[in-house]
Design brief:
mainly alpha
Length: 466
């Protein structure tokens, strides 16, 4: 079930809110767990059992890890928990990838398993792993109440596309959290803004990307238009989903950490990844990079650690070589920045903007390619390979047609609107006007987006694939 769908907005969510706020505090986590399981079963009924098994194993091993803390058995149960989590992930997400590559290397023809990928498995697997590891480290106590742990893992606002919410960040909120009209209003505002980013901007840019991919009139500027459109598309798609998840969390009394912080204003790749998908970056930092030694090792080992993290980051996104190359592409740039490039870029203004724009656009062309052959074709097209024309009539037509949404998305990907709003909120009279206009604007946005949804417009979520 998509957040950006009529069944969710006008049937599921209202019923859930009525039920959730009708029950006493002691039953709220139970209600949240049950409605979350229903939400997941709506699209993946057979994989609810897989999720339940994963939660059950995590719950039992968490108790055993804590019980034998300081003893060898504690590490054994941690290893068991992580092995099961990664085993499920490897089987459902990567089995066919390994079989395909084994067949390619050996010349054999082992049949593919063709297993459907459970939605959100990459996200909830990492959440359960972080819980087990944090219990082992003593950062959090093991959760004694299985309903509370299940509510954390299955929580529908962030279940299927993140952000990756760590147990340590909401452990106390599972027991004691604040519900208020002010917090709910902030949550509704954040949810509607995220919904607008998804429906009005991301979906429209996604249509432009599909038009380009189906076109027979490719041109150099058309490739660049596609690269810009896709980079903005994936940003507004994923950050819009994160906004909706954070907003829904607030309505239910939770405070999830931010997942995006205007990454396109970055001047280096290092900064970009401190602003993009922050929950994933911090997860790999705390559970892979630092345990490997981080940067407190020899330079060679330090760079090795970076490559390991980014190999895994790319592979986490998908079972295909373009995702692996995408991750290693960033690893190379990060190493170069740490060697000399960052110091050079800090002395420039124009070059660093060109550099980050090229790095991001090329990376997302790789990311969205069906295979590396297509990735190289598209990158080559951006630089005129193959003797293609510089511009085409079709490109000019679609540039004109989508100019407004492209301009709005470019502005919206920077803090300009946010900073302007904050400045306007300084005056008392202005604040009063905003307080009156805000619900009107929110309601108007919801009506417009409902019309888009009723019309049956392009509406997938990219990160459901991962």
């Amino acid at each position: 079930m998509l957040f950006s769908s009529i069944p969710f907005l006008y049937f599921f969510l209202p019923c859930v809110l009525i039920l959730y706020f009708a029950v006493p505090r002691c039953l709220k986590n139970t209600v949240l767990m049950l409605v979350s399981l229903f939400f997941y079963a709506w699209g993946e009924p057979k994989y609810v059992l897989l999720m339940a098994a994963t939660i059950g194993i995590g719950y039992v091993t968490g108790l055993l890890i804590e019980k034998f803390k300081g003893k060898a058995l504690s590490k054994v149960f941690l290893g068991l928990s992580v092995a099961v989590d990664l085993g499920f992930l490897a089987y459902f997400k990567y089995a066919d990838f390994f079989i395909e590559n084994f067949n390619a290397v050996t010349g054999l023809s082992l049949p593919l398993l063709r297993i459907a990928l459970p939605i959100g498995i990459s996200f909830y697997t990492f959440q359960i792993m972080s819980y087990s590891i944090d219990v082992y480290r003593g950062d959090v106590p093991a959760q004694k109440n299985p309903v509370n742990l299940a509510a954390y893992v299955t929580m529908f606002p962030q279940l299927i596309a993140g952000p990756i919410v760590r147990y340590a960040d909401i452990e106390k909120q599972l027991k004691h959290r604040t519900h208020s009209f002010e917090k709910a209003a902030a949550g509704i505002r954040r949810f509607v803004i995220g919904l607008a980013k998804k429906i009005l901007i991301a979906n429209t840019l996604g249509e432009l990307c599909d038009i380009f991919r189906e076109s027979d009139e490719k041109a150099v500027l058309y490739y660049w238009l596609y690269a810009v459109a896709f980079a903005l598309h994936i940003y507004f798609d994923f950050s819009g989903y994160s906004d909706m998840a954070i907003g829904l969390g607030k309505i239910f009394g939770f405070d999830f950490l931010e997942n995006f912080n205007y990454p396109f204003v970055s001047s280096t790749v290092t900064e970009f990844w401190r602003r993009w998908h922050m929950s994933l970056g911090s997860w790999f930092r705390d559970y892979v990079y630092i345990p490997l030694g981080g940067n407190r090792v020899s330079k060679g080992r330090w760079f090795f650690n970076i490559f390991v993290v980014w190999l895994l980051t790319g592979f986490w996104h998908g079972a295909a070589w373009n995702f692996i190359i995408w991750g290693l592409f960033f690893a190379v740039l990060l190493v170069l920045e740490k060697l000399f490039l960052k110091n050079f870029l800090e002395k420039t203004k124009v070059i660093k903007r060109i550099y980050i724009a090229l790095a991001v656009l090329i990376s997302f062309v790789i990311f969205n390619a069906t295979d590396m052959k297509e990735a190289f074709q598209y990158i080559g097209g951006m630089f005129g390979a193959g003797g293609i024309p510089f511009v085409s009539a079709e490109m000019l037509y679609y540039l004109k047609s989508y100019a407004l949404v492209l301009v709005l998305s470019l502005i919206g990907s920077t803090p300009v609107i946010k900073n302007t709003a904050l400045r306007l909120c300084n005056g008392e009279k202005t604040v009063k006007v905003i307080n009156v206009l805000e619900p009107v604007v929110i309601a108007a946005l919801l009506i417009v987006m409902t019309a888009y949804l009723v019309d049956g417009s392009f509406n997938p979520f990219l990160y459901f694939r991962f």
